[in-house]
Amino acid sequence: MMETHRKVQVAVIGAGTAGLAAMTQVRRVTDNFVLINGGALGTTCARVGCMPSKAVIQVAEDFHRRKVFDRVGIVSKQHLTVDIPNVLEHVRDLRDIFVDRVLAGTTDELGEQFIDGYARFAGPNLLQVSGHRVQADNIVIATGSRPVVPDAWRRFGDRVLTTDNLFEQDDLPDSVAVLGLGVIGLELGQALGRIGVEVTGIDALQRVGGITDPAVNKIAVDLMGREFPVWLGHRAELQEESRRLRVSSGEQTVVVDKVLVCLGRRPNLDRLGLEQLGVETDARGVPKHDPHTMQIDGMPIFIAGDVNADRQILHEAADEGRIAGRNAVSKEIQSYARRTPITITFTDPNIASVGVPFTDLDESQLAVGEIRFGPVGRAVLMAKNKGLLRVYAQRRNGKLLGGSMIAPSGEHLAHLLAWSVQLGQSVHDVLRMPFYHPAIEEALQAALQDLKRKIDPSTRDTFELERLDVQPRP
Amino acid sequence: MMETHRKVQVAVIGAGTAGLAAMTQVRRVTDNFVLINGGALGTTCARVGCMPSKAVIQVAEDFHRRKVFDRVGIVSKQHLTVDIPNVLEHVRDLRDIFVDRVLAGTTDELGEQFIDGYARFAGPNLLQVSGHRVQADNIVIATGSRPVVPDAWRRFGDRVLTTDNLFEQDDLPDSVAVLGLGVIGLELGQALGRIGVEVTGIDALQRVGGITDPAVNKIAVDLMGREFPVWLGHRAELQEESRRLRVSSGEQTVVVDKVLVCLGRRPNLDRLGLEQLGVETDARGVPKHDPHTMQIDGMPIFIAGDVNADRQILHEAADEGRIAGRNAVSKEIQSYARRTPITITFTDPNIASVGVPFTDLDESQLAVGEIRFGPVGRAVLMAKNKGLLRVYAQRRNGKLLGGSMIAPSGEHLAHLLAWSVQLGQSVHDVLRMPFYHPAIEEALQAALQDLKRKIDPSTRDTFELERLDVQPRP
């Protein structure tokens, strides 16, 4: 193959969520760009992330629901069962729909503007891609991330699963140890357990699902621990044992068919040749960059999405890609506000956090309102009345700062709370909003009413509705 | 029994949601009050409304869900069945929990402050209750509502069901005609159909679920019509036929075991002796009153909850009760802002409306954004990708006015939209909020993005994130 040399206004490296979002912005201004992608097309979200995991979770939830049947008058003479190969096929069918959708209208129609290969910096404005050279005035790095797997475990071969290959399996093993109980480990651990896999969950920390609020973490550990053994506080050690794996964690040990490694996602930085840029990097090797412009300090290079390790969440990756793409083609570097942080773990109940993490709050200035779901009307009706919702505000004036929850329909409560935080609302402001009955939103109302009682009395408003004018009595 | 005469500062008539809310406010200021209630204790919501209906709906939804099992890999060798007497017992068990909760701490502990009986005005400040006289400086009328049943149908006896007796049945008939497809008729029609009752739904109007948006109504009629026959546009006529009932509507006719009458709820005004007050009333017989003070024009009398026929919804009844109670004990009459209107019909998909009804909008100034749920990621994952969401704004500047939907998880989308409307947000403001992936909230985002394209181009913002400062390019 002859080496080619191309000059473009913008090169976008990576055709995932961030890269495609960047390209969309670039395309509005110029056709003089290339999109470079190494490896499989389709975003992390659609291929191996949000979408296939949510497909498994939905099946698990539907199947798990049979446990209320007796209580509510639904009769099942024979137990329902799950046909796991069929479930996995269903998951891949859905995944293919989502992957096709991502590709349609983006990489499908690019022609020469698309380059298949791994890009490597040969200089600040020069990329090497499978023998080709691309000189670009502006570059967007959006190479994404991949699951962390300790090198020592590679020797266990196909007994080590990650999200990269889990959904490709034809069948699931009888037993799995889920190593790492962050967002992904907790979601998949619960879902696999619910469709009949014998799951053991292990994490080196004492907290699960990335929860920083200790009260919420305690409930989460308790609720998850009712579905499968949860071993916390010790790193997992693996040993081969008659073609299976012995997994040990502190004093505890179990032999399983496979392990599902969920130790986080590593930025795909190592093949980029970033040393050519001569830029400062942080401990994870990520070049210093501005999260409001996505610019790498002082260069016409932007870094967006999972690869910058800031907020490895789809909607944030899309925002970062859009900011990076926009700044890659505009006359000035424009700063953009970021959205209020929100994370959702799609366990049942959902785990979610909003705004300032609990560990970053100043306890001396803090008021916390909380509600347990035991008596919450709608939660009782749904037979899902387990969980805890905590809402944070400035004690002085009731201004909302964020919250943490393990809650039925927590994904929806988290949106309401995040929007309120982003708008700078106080607990009094939010209590003036409509809360319908019997909706789960009444749980948020109850938590806010509890919070209100903990605000400085001098700024406390005892009546929820906004006062208008006053008239004399008859 | 000796006739007694009592003098109090406040008399509250009716121990439902509005009356109890009023009493709570009164109690903060004085013990010199009475609560008078005729008939069964417990609120309409807890006894015969929201709570028992939602309990039936939840069972129906759980049972209906079996229809996705095949597709997703859940194997059921024998069909699931429903044991209806057990379902009804489960519903009553839940209902009793909610009724007990309403009574606890309110009417339970009142002692002499509670009077059992129907109150009747003997003068502007004088009530007659089962032979007793109560003279009250201030009176709150909160007598609620009851199902409308045409007199001519009373002769069909126990073949006529309403929400007052439906949940008391030991078993359900094989076939039911649901007469009236407003919120209650649609919810119960769908739920009864799903647990195996042969349902025919009939309404004299061409619209269902109180929907005013014709596009949403069309989808709702279509989706509901797939579950049970829906006959619209003709009043139902009933005739006895060999101990069953022949129900005719226009050209169509069916013989059923019973009818469930859902023709709305009539304010309980007729036994109050309101003619003693000499106040002006509207066509429904409701005294003229101010919805921000709940005061009846020029009198120390307040009217709150279903009985005033304004907004027959629990959270509104509670607000009205609180306003009425507060004004009944305060030195001046205080006006309060009301919450943005929101209604939710707990069908599947949910039907919801927010803000200004479609029929009250000025089409010449209007922009409408919409999204169908067919391709919405989370809806596909849930196998619930049916429905339509429409969002309204001022075309000139994108200020949100409201919306209408039949949507999976519509109850949650309706809250987000209602809060945004109440805060006076524009479509651009709301698009700056976080929308998590893959959450159903992305459907609202898509509808808003569609809406944005229909706003006057001079005020249209093409980039969603808020601009901060600008820096020169490197």
Distance between the termini of chain A: 94 Å
Instruction: Give the overall average pLDDT of chain A.
Output: 95
Structural class of chain A: alpha/beta
Question: Do you know the CATH topology of the largest domain in chain A?
Answer: FAD/NAD(P)-binding domain
Beta-strand share of residues of chain A: 25-35%
- What would the principal axes of the Cα set say about the shape of chain A? globular
Q: State the domain count of chain A.
A: 3
Largest sheet of chain A: 7 strands, mixed
**Helix content range of the residues of chain A, please?**
25-40%
Largest interface: A-B, 101 and 101 residues
Uncertain regions spanning at least 5 consecutive residues of chain A? none
Instruction: Find the CATH superfamily of the largest domain in chain A.
Output: FAD/NAD(P)-binding domain
Specify the oligomeric state: homodimer
| Tally of helical runs of chain A | 13
Q: Label the CATH architecture of the largest domain in chain A.
A: 3-Layer(bba) Sandwich
Rg of chain A, Å, rounded: 25 Å
